Amino acid sequence: MSEIKTRCLIIGSGPAGYTAAIYTSRANIAPLVIEGQQPGGQLTITTEVENFPSHPNGITGPQLMEDIRSQALRFGADIRSGLVTEVDFSNRPFKVKTNTGLDISADTVIISTGASARYLGLPDEQKYSGLGVSACATCDGFFYRKKRVAVVGGGDTACEEALYLSNLASEVYLIVRKPYLRASKVMQERVLNKSNIKVLFNTNTAGLYGEEYLEGAHLVENVGTEDERRYDIAIDGFFLAIGHNPNTEVFRQYIECDESGYVKVKGASTHTNIPGVFAAGDVADPSYRQAITAAGMGCKAALDVERYLGEQGL
Ligand code: NDP
Q1: For the chain, where are the alpha helices, taking DSSP H only?
Q2: Using CA atoms, how far apart are residues 158 and 152, in angstroms rounded to an integer?
Q3: Please, is 211 exposed, middle or buried when counting C-beta atoms within 10 Å of its C-beta (0-12, 13-18, 19+)?
Q4: Of the residues 8, 107, 124, 140, which is catalytic?
Q5: Is there an atom of ligand 1 within 6 Å of 76 CB?
Q6: pLDDT for 138
Q7: Is 286 in the pocket of ligand 1 (CB under 6 A)?
Q8: Per-residue pLDDT tens over the stretch 150-163
Q9: CB distance 158 to ligand 1 below 6 Å
Q10: Residue 244 has pLDDT above 90, yes or no
Q11: Could you tell me which of 14, 38, 37, 24 has the C-alpha nearest to residue 78?
Q12: Pairing of strands 148-152, 171-175
């Protein structure tokens, strides 16, 4: 087992982690980045990214992440593959282990492990991933102008995404498994009053179909009752909005999280409840969840680390 000492360990490699790596490298902190299960993060499973500033013609998600990674490497960041399996934040320096056999001793840690969108678990979701199935309306909605789409979920995210899509698509189905929406009253009202959003209550998705691209969904209304009814809707886009799971499991023993598992940060900073441990990106942000906001928070975490190291004389 090899042991590594670092002044800053960055866990996770989405826009937050890589941006933190650029800033800490340029500040001569020589960070170590452990990339995690999905190097490059959620953007590596999207296609075109058209809303990240400085790419007037758009860029693919994987290319954008490769570019940010190269930028961090250019300034000397030590980027390694591996998954963090164990942390000990009870003593300083902090101790972290990876599944690749690294034993890391770190003066500071930036948690940027992201959040994973929840899927229904249908095999068809994989089949049409990037071909009509998406978990981010803000990212992919633009490709469905004047087309028909469906959003799954009954919470604030689903309502927000349905409203966003209703300004682009010709028709939006909101597929809700219960007889009511869980979203806030104001969002419910907006959705119910929007003429091109059709809310399908008591409805589940049984499957998706289409030759090459998505062409429709098989739905079941009133599952398991006398009134059960199966029918299809023709759609070009199928958006999941049934929540996200922040990737905080390994830190829970030490780091304060909210009831949904998102890391709590202090005010507008990236400080967690443990001095010297910071959090950035989707893992600490249930509401914005954009590549650009994650990158911005990664920058803030790097500056917080720099200040902390200075204050502690490390
Ligand atoms: P929520 O957990 O609030 O809602 C998830 C929705 O998905 C629920 O309607 C749930 O149904 C449904 N769902 C879950 N699993 C399945 C499944 N397997 N099949 C079908 N439907 C399913 O998640 P959100 O992402 O909407 O919101 C997360 C948090 O962020 C909330 O606190 C929310 O208020 C907040 N938020 C606030 C916003 C704002 O203020 N602008 C915008 C977006 C989010 P059921 O009700 O049956 O459990």
Answers
A1: 15-26, 61-74, 123-127, 137-140, 156-166, 185-193, 291-312
A2: 7
A3: exposed
A4: 140
A5: no
A6: 84
A7: yes
A8: 999 999 989 999 99
A9: yes
A10: no
A11: 24
A12: parallel
